[in-house]
Amino acid sequence: MQDQIKKISIISGELDSSFRELDFDRKLLELDEINKELEDPHVWDNSENAQKLSKKQAKLKLTVEPWVTLKQKIDEARELAEMGDESLSSEISKQIEEALRYLDDLKKSLKYNGPYDDHDAVIRLQAGAGGVDAMDWTSMLERMYLRWAEKSGYKAELVDESRGEEAGIKSATITISGVNAFGKLQSEHGVHRLVRLSPFNSDNLRQTSFAMVEVLPQIDEPDEVEIDEKDIRVDVFRASGHGGQSVNTTDSAVRITHIPTNIVVSIQNEKSQIQNKETAMKILRSKLAQLQVEQHAERISELKGPNQEAAWGNQIRNYVLHPYSQVKNTKTKFEVKDAQKVLDGDLDPFLN
């Protein structure tokens, strides 16, 4: 029993240290205050504020509740061990092993300590060099990320999509919501290269295709990334492609250009011009936040525009389907042999 009590004390000490480092007392107090606010029946008189509170509540719960649960489990194990009943020894050992596994998982989550790691993620896909094959490759990547989100318990939403004339997609925007979504996915940011036998030429020749994957922190609050109105140009135009009656009849699509960096965001999926503009502004703020982190800039006004092309020499990962099967990161050299498994959403080995 003394050995078990010693192990419990070590785990408890690590938990106390984590609680101090992560300022959980303040977070628990903040969560308690939000809970009280949301219990007020009049809080929904201001639906926008209520939604913000609900979102903040959910995020705080996801952050602190796993640690609180583990602390409760350890306290229960300590109480059992201090009873000195040898018949409970196997049950206590089982609880200690479970607690250690749980603690190890929680400690892994601590590596997501960047300024936006706890934010939801915006994934923007853009077909690069390779013609129709590149557009088809971009649609394969879209499927891969949607599959990963589904398997990992994250909520994914397709915000915008521009389909190719013959096959695949020219571009797409997906939002991924969940714990540390941006922190987990940010290593996907870059050019992805595919080598395979092309299904789009009669000779079935080997084809190399490229697609750009941008992973951005979702910035919902305008004050997180402030954009000067004089630095943006807003153009409206008629939406094209598949859609309802409003497609091609109203100027509902929106294109926003950030003049200092020449970043352009176009959104046309919503029927309302106002909704499209709001979505485009959110994505623009997200792109500027990512660029600010990359360039270590203190102010948005200091940013330079991105210049990476989705072409040869810039890729962060190679996917080879022919003449062999392999997916390999160019920087870390990490690789797996089952390329289809990765394309079916098994991304965790790369993310970890």
Describe the secondary-structure layout:
Elements (H helix, E strand, L loop, with lengths): L1 H20 L2 H16 L7 H36 L6 H21 L11 E7 L3 H22 L2 E9 L5 E9 L3 H5 L4 E8 L8 E12 L14 E6 L15 E6 L4 E5 L5 H22 L20 E6 L5 E4 L5 E2 L2 H5 L4 H4 L1
Parallel strand pairs: 4-9
Antiparallel strand pairs: 1-3, 1-5, 2-3, 4-5, 6-7, 7-8, 9-10, 10-11
Q: Helix and strand succession?
A: HHHHEHEEHEEEEEHEEEHH
Indicate the percent of residues in helices.
40-55%
State mean pLDDT (0 to 100 scale). Answer: 87
Structural class comes to alpha+beta
Strand content: 15-25%
The CATH class of the largest domain, by name, is Alpha Beta
- Point out poorly predicted stretches: 243-248
Quickly describe the structure.
The protein has 352 residues and is of the alpha+beta class.
Write up this protein:
By secondary structure, the chain is of the alpha+beta class. It has 3 domains: 2-109, Methane Monooxygenase Hydroxylase, Chain G, domain 1 (Up-down Bundle), CATH 1.20.58; 125-220 and 306-351, Alpha-Beta Plaits; 222-302, Double Stranded RNA Binding Domain, CATH 3.30.160.20. 43% of the residues lie in helices and 21% in strands. It has 9 helices and 11 strands. The chain has an 8-stranded mixed beta sheet. The protein has a 3-stranded antiparallel beta sheet with strand order 6-7-8, with helices on one face. A hairpin with a 5-residue loop joins strand 9 (315-320) and strand 10 (326-329). Helix 1 packs parallel to helix 4. The longest helix is centred in the N-terminal third of the chain and has 36 residues, at 47-82. Mean pLDDT is 87; it is low at 243-248.
